[in-house]
Amino acid sequence: MMKVKVLGAGSIGNHLSNASRAMGWDVDLCDVDPAALARTRNEIYPGRYGKWDEGIRLFEVKDAPKGGYDLIFIGTPPDWHVPLALEAVAEKPKAILVEKPFCTPDLKDAQKLFAAAKAAGVAVFTGYDHVVGKAADKMVEIATSGSLGAIETLDVEFREFWGGIFAAHPWLSGPGDTYLGYWKRGGGASGEHSHAANLWQHFAHAIGAGRVVEVQAALDFVSGGKVEYDKLCLLNLKTESGFVGRVVQDVVTNPPCKWSRIQGANGYAEWQCGFKPGVDAVFEGGAKGQTAEHLFPKTRPDDFIQELKHIEAVLAADPAQSGISIARGLDTMLVVAAAHKSAREGRTVRIDYTAGYTEAALI
After folding, report:
1. What is the pTM of this model?
2. Which of 7, 44, 289, 329 qualifies as a cystine partner to 102, CB 3.0-4.6 A?
């Protein structure tokens, strides 16, 4: 049986705790704020999952045990991800899961964490759970089957008004109350919906296009009062093989559109998250007009259970080959960082992977 420590008793921390319990694992849930722990026990967890689980132990971080854990999950705001992950590496668990976005766009200490985890032999994963979902697996299956012919284009959009986030966090009055309202802390469309950039990279790897090496971006910022964030993030991407494609992320579209299309010379495949309530879908079509529909029923808790099943499986095989490995998560952060640099300087930014996960990689 796995023993798990979860850092952060917000929405993600509750989902990860519940998923861990569904896996039959022991869970210690920790937060710096005792009010957050009380809210978890009395409101969030029973409100979502029917009742409080007495098998979950609650700790203030200052009182939390150190060491002896198989897995450590970090579900705090992004500006705490890397510092807490570095502390977690020192505890020598089998693996660490860091929620997305992996870090802040300045990439502070990202390379330090990458090196420390490798030296310690600790696998690190990132919470881009869409790429390990059943619908994404189906997209990869179709795209690599040869039925689409030569792949011509790849597009991914995560366009979603973030009012749903605040509905799930009623103690927050808006983006100014959290990291979401500050792009430098990992918020805004570029950070919060970086699932789209990550999913684009995942599919690009699957079709053999390689890593992103050029980013051309346009960002639409909201500034006023306390907040400074991008409400719209448009990305044109080029990979090391010369393949080009497009990513759109926003925090204003309602109803949401989470969509991807892979177009081949002989057909297409489309991925839709939330095609209808409780269902993801993949559609495929051929050059002669033939079509197929693949539906994947799921609940929101299922996303996290699937993610943990994936982690359990790859730990027994090769964690480095996972679609949510630390390298994949930090590759996405290089794209996010390059997007901000591109928008700020009005030019295409190249990524030099030999410089590691640092700002020096952006040229």
Report:
1. 0.97
2. 329
